[in-house]
From TrEMBL:
Catalytic activity: 3',5'-cyclic UMP + H2O = UMP + H(+); 3',5'-cyclic CMP + H2O = CMP + H(+)
UniProt keyword annotation of Hydrolase present: yes
Domain Metallo-beta-lactamase: 28-236
Source superkingdom: Bacteria
Keywords: Hydrolase
Lineage: Bacteria, Bacillati, Bacillota, Bacilli, Bacillales
Organism of provenance: Paenibacillus zeisoli
Chain's role: Counteracts the endogenous Pycsar antiviral defense system. Phosphodiesterase that enables metal-dependent hydrolysis of host cyclic nucleotide Pycsar defense signals such as cCMP and cUMP.
Protein's UniProt keywords contain Hydrolase: yes
Cross-referenced PANTHER family: METALLO-BETA-LACTAMASE DOMAIN-CONTAINING (PTHR42951), METALLO-BETA-LACTAMASE DOMAIN-CONTAINING PROTEIN (PTHR42951:SF17)
MF GO annotations: hydrolase activity
Protein name: MBL fold metallo-hydrolase
Pfam short name (any one): Lactamase_B
Matches recorded under SMART domains: Lactamase_B (SM00849)
């Protein structure tokens, strides 16, 4: 069942990528349901923003009839974790993230502020108002296992893909080349409001206004390209597969500085001078 059924459900859209993987588009970021419909041991990847929590919960209830076994976070930026406190409390489920991301999820360290000077339009321009303060999940958040395994997802492994944030991870299933890339690369130019609204397909580097280490971000894209994934869900934009993914990702990996690295920016000079 590789069909792409795009169904409207309230404030969220969903698109089936494989029979057991659905990309759910919330207000600005994507979240993933991993598990076949009616399967009771399913997992939620990222949580979107607080306003879409109820729609996500309803969708999960209709699809699975039960809460997930766990919530896995690709990273802790506000657009990926906005609903995580509410959902993990309501569902009473553990949350997992990379150890380097835990300070931002346990109230210990704020992210550096977004950098509006990276350019690219309205979304970057309004980025100073994006929240960058740490949230506090307290005892509900745990480190991902050090061996690369993913709790409750035996077919998957996590891959450290830092740069956009220190503990950013991607998730990969070797058996069919399926990648959940978080914000390591995305399929919409997130800095531009127009392409965010129209969701034009194009592969881009991580959202620039939050990316603090561009050298690592480049290595992460190269690491993911080397996997030769067959299909990918990214943190923003539509899922991508086949040649469009292969060609686009190789092109991005080979020309990262030209295509993704902003010409100027607070975090560009820090790491690339
Ligand atoms: Zn992010
Ligand atoms: Zn994001």
């Amino acid at each position: 069942m590789d069909g792409k059924s795009l169904l409207k459900t309230g404030t969220i859209d969903k698109e089936d990528v494989t029979g057991d993987l659905t990309c759910v588009r919330t207000l600005i970021a994507n979240v993933c349901f991993v598990g076949r419909p009616s399967q009771r041991d399913w997992v939620l990847i990222d949580t979107g923003l607080e306003p879409t929590v109820n729609a996500l919960e309803k969708e999960a209830e209709e699809r699975y009839g039960c809460p997930p076994q766990a919530i896995i976070l690709t990273h802790g930026h506000f657009d990926h974790v906005g609903g995580v406190i509410t959902l993990s409390e309501r569902w009473q489920v553990p949350v997992y993230a990379h150890p380097l991301e835990l300070p931002f999820l346990t109230g210990n360290q704020d992210y550096p502020p977004a950098d509006p000077s990276v350019g690219g339009g309205l979304m970057a321009g309004i980025s100073p108002i994006y929240p960058h303060k740490a949230i506090n999940l307290e005892h509900r958040v745990h480190s991902l296992p050090g061996d690369g395994s993913v709790p409750n997802l035996p077919e998957w492994r996590w891959i450290h893909t830092p740069g956009h944030s220190p503990g950013h991870i991607s998730l990969y299933r070797d058996s069919d080349g399926t990648l959940i890339a978080g914000d390591a690369f995305i399929t919409v130019k997130q800095e531009s409001a127009l392409s965010v609204i129209s969701q034009e397909m194009e592969l881009h580097g991580p959202p620039a206004y939050f990316t603090t280490n561009w050298e690592q971000a480049k290595e992460s894209v190269q690491k993911l390209a080397a996997l030769k994934p067959q299909r990918a869900i990214t943190g923003h934009g539509r899922p991508v597969s086949g040649e469009e993914l292969t060609i686009g990702l190789n092109h991005l990996a080979e020309n990262f500085d030209k295509l993704a690295l902003p010409k100027h920016g607070r975090y560009v000079q820090e790491h690339n001078s």
